[in-house]
Structure formats: C-alpha cells, structure tokens
C-alpha cells in the first residue's frame, strides 16, 4: 500500500538576484549557467501545516538553514557567501512554493543522512 506522509514540501526556486550572485561569486563559478541553477530546485520536507499562517512560520523557522543549503549547493567557500542572510534577503533571492500532500510511492527503506551545513 502506498502512503501519505505527515510532511509538507517546500520547493525553493532561485530568483534573478540569487542567480546573479552565483554567477559572480568567484572565479570557479564562471562555468555555471543560469539554466544550471534553475534546472532542479531543492525540495525541503517540513512539518505538515493546517493554515496559511503556519506556512509563514515554517519559513521563519527554517529560512536560515535553507538559505545556507542553497548557497552551499553552488558555492562551498563560505568566505564569499553574503554576510546579510536575513529573511528579507531570503525572500529577495528565492521563490518558495508549498505543497501539503506528499505521497510516498517508493518501496525502499528511507536512508537518512546529515547535511554538512
């Protein structure tokens, strides 16, 4: 039997500001294109929510981790990361989409790994 899990998905897509930062962050990123950055957005599982107001709180509770994960995906040298990583900058750099129904169609066991951020 397939299952619905008690999580919501947050899909984070880069805005123009983030793409421009990646493309100009350092010499090693010169080979990256805007299409590369926009190609496959990260998806974060968060606690399920009941109301729209809870979505806002989920972002406030998790934006720092998500922000750093998005930066680290493209530029691992933290010394070139922007110093200003507040929620206002997060909103300027990323589109956030919520999806409340998550269906688990896989049959394999979950494999959990810790992030390096």
What does the secondary structure layout of this molecule look like, with pairings?
Layout: E1 3-5, E2 7-14, H1 16-24, H2 34-39, E3 42-47, H3 52-74, H4 87-93, E4 94-99, E5 102-104
Antiparallel strand pairs: 1-5, 2-3, 2-4
What structural category arises from helix and sheet content? alpha+beta
- The percent of residues in helical segments reads 25-40%
> Whole-Å distance between the termini?
35 Å
Largest sheet: 3 strands, antiparallel
**Would you count the extended β strands for me?**
5
SSE string, helices as H and strands as E: EEHHEHHEE
Order of strands, main sheet, comes to 3-2-4
- Name the beta content range: 15-25%
Q: Provide a count of the helices.
A: 4
Low-pLDDT residue intervals, each spanning 5 or more residues: none
Shape: globular
Give the radius of gyration. 16 Å
Number of domains: 1
Mean of the pLDDT scores?
A: 87
Q: Characteristics of this structure?
A:
117 residues, alpha+beta, three-stranded antiparallel β-sheet, two-stranded antiparallel sheet, 4 helices
Nutshell version of this structure?
With 117 residues, the protein is an alpha+beta fold. The protein has helices spanning 16-24, 34-39, 52-74, 87-93, and strands spanning 3-5, 7-14, 42-47, 94-99, 102-104.
Can you offer a commentary on this structure?
It contains four helices and five strands, in the order ββααβααββ. The protein is α+β, with helices and mostly antiparallel strands and 117 residues long. A three-stranded antiparallel sheet has the order 3-2-4. Strands 1-5 form a two-stranded antiparallel sheet. It is globular, with a radius of gyration of 16 Å. The model has no long low-confidence stretch (mean pLDDT 87).
């Amino acid at each position: 039997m397939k299952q619905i899990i008690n999580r919501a998905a947050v899909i984070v897509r880069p805005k123009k500001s983030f793409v421009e930062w990646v493309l100009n962050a350092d010499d090693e990123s010169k080979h990256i294109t805007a299409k590369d950055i926009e190609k496959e957005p990260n998806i974060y599982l968060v606690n399920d929510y009941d109301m729209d107001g809870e979505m806002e709180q989920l972002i406030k509770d998790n934006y720092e981790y998500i922000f750093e994960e998005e930066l680290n995906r493209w530029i691992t040298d933290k010394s070139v990361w922007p110093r200003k990583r507040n929620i206002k900058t997060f909103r300027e750099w990323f589109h956030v989409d919520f999806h409340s129904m998550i269906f688990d169609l896989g049959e394999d066991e979950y494999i959990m790994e810790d992030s390096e951020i």
